[in-house]
Write a structure and sequence with these properties.
The complex is a heterodimer of chains A (140) and B (158). Chain A has helices at 15-25, 66-77, 91-100; strands spanning 7-11, 29-36, 39-45, 53-57, 84-88, 104-112, 115-121, 127-132. Chain A has 140 residues and is of the alpha/beta class. Chain A has one domain: 2,3-Dihydroxybiphenyl 1,2-Dioxygenase, domain 1, CATH 3.10.180.10. The radius of gyration of chain A is 16 Å and the shape is globular. The two termini of chain A are 22 Å apart. The radius of gyration of chain B is 17 Å and the shape is globular. Chain B has nine helices and no strands. Chain B has two domains: 1-51; 55-158, Homeodomain-like (Arc Repressor Mutant, subunit A). With 158 residues, chain B is mainly alpha-helical. In chain B, helix 1 (5-20) packs across helix 2. Helices cover 65% and strands 0% of the residues of chain B. Classes of the chains: A alpha/beta (140), B mainly alpha (158). Chain A binds chain B through residues 13, 70, 73-74, 76-79, 83, 85, 104, 106-108, 112-113, 115, 117, 119, 121, 124-125, 129, 131, 138, and chain B through 2-3, 5-6, 8-9, 11-13, 15-16, 19-20, 49-50, 72, 119-120, 122-125.
Chain lengths: 140, 158
């Protein structure tokens, strides 16, 4: 595949903290981590998904002024950012594994409509749903 | 209204806690402890952060959950009332009508008759769309409704 979405970013309050969370707790790998002065381009990816990168960006100068950056961090901390979904083979197993690593779960696994979903947050406040792949994927 | 992101993150934890068990009562003391805020400051800080007092927020989650159970299950309305945190069917029915404008039975009939083209949206997000937008207290909503039915003040728009 040569065309498609390659990077989608989330705002984080601290890039070192976010890196530790997504790599050590969630199990992602680092794709790019480069700095230019105070600016740091940091992306991670799911080990099974080499064509997609999740950016972990800290809002701030020079890209955003300090007031705007503060507003962005407030929105993240309030859980006001858009939904993120991580698809897994076994929601209960992944939930148990991530919880043992200290991930903050906001919802225990719930079975509904032939699937199981749980919810967790990263340290900054970004909310994820952990959704189990349906046994029989819907036919379109 | 500027609030410290660290404080907001802790207030979000109280909100998440209510989300995880909206059928519980959640006294302010417990929520304040989750957020690491004093009891005296909690309700105000929460409202500043999320635009709604904590217990009204809890009410929106209970109604959202009740609507989901009405739509997705065949549970008796009494069971739904108790499962979503009410102690009496009467209070549930009255509050439900005040908030949604329709009785639980009517909502069930409407929801179950509706098309299910939303089936490709993850259920948890779909549910959130049913959360009532309670910008005023239920008691105030009730007063406004009474005033409207009484007549002369009917044109008054807050």
């Amino acid at each position: 595949m040569s065309q498609g979405v390659e990077v989608v970013g989330v705002y984080v309050r601290d890039q070192d903290e976010a890196l530790a969370f997504y790599v050590e707790k969630i199990g992602f790998c680092v794709h790019t981590d480069v700095r230019n002065g105070a600016y740091r381009w940091l992306t991670v990816q799911h080990p099974d998904q080499p064509s997609f990168q999740l950016g972990l960006f800290k809002p701030g100068p020079p890209v955003l002024d300090a007031t705007t950056a503060q507003a962005a961090l407030e929105l993240v901390a309030k859980g006001a950012m858009p939904p993120l979904v991580l698809v897994v083979d076994d929601c209960h197993a992944t939930h148990a594994q991530l919880r043992a690593r200290g991930v903050e779960f906001t919802q225990e696994p719930v079975k509904r409509f032939g699937s199981v979903d749980a919810g967790f947050r990263d340290p900054s406040g970004n909310g994820w749903k952990l959704i189990q792949v349906r046994q029989t994927q819907r036919q379109h | 209204m500027n609030q410290d992101p660290e404080l907001l993150r802790r207030l979000l934890r109280a909100k998440d806690t209510m989300d995880a068990a909206s059928h519980d009562d959640w006294p302010v003391r417990q929520l304040a402890r989750v957020s690491g805020v004093s009891e005296a400051h909690f309700a105000r800080s929460f409202k500043d952060a999320f635009g709604i007092p904590p217990h009204r927020y809890l009410l929106t989650r209970r109604i959202e959950r009740a609507v989901a159970l009405l739509r997705e299950t065949d549970l008796a309305i009494t069971d739904i009332a108790f499962q979503t945190g009410w102690n009496s069917l009467g209070t549930f029915g009255r509050t439900f009508r005040d908030v949604t404008g329709a009785s639980p039975g009517a909502i069930r009939a409407r929801e179950q008759a509706g098309p299910s083209e939303m089936a490709t949206v993850p259920a948890c997000f779909l549910r959130a769309a049913d959360r009532p937008d309670l910008t005023i207290a239920v008691s105030e909503k009730r007063r406004q409704k009474t005033r409207r039915t009484l007549g002369p003040e009917a044109t008054e728009v807050p």
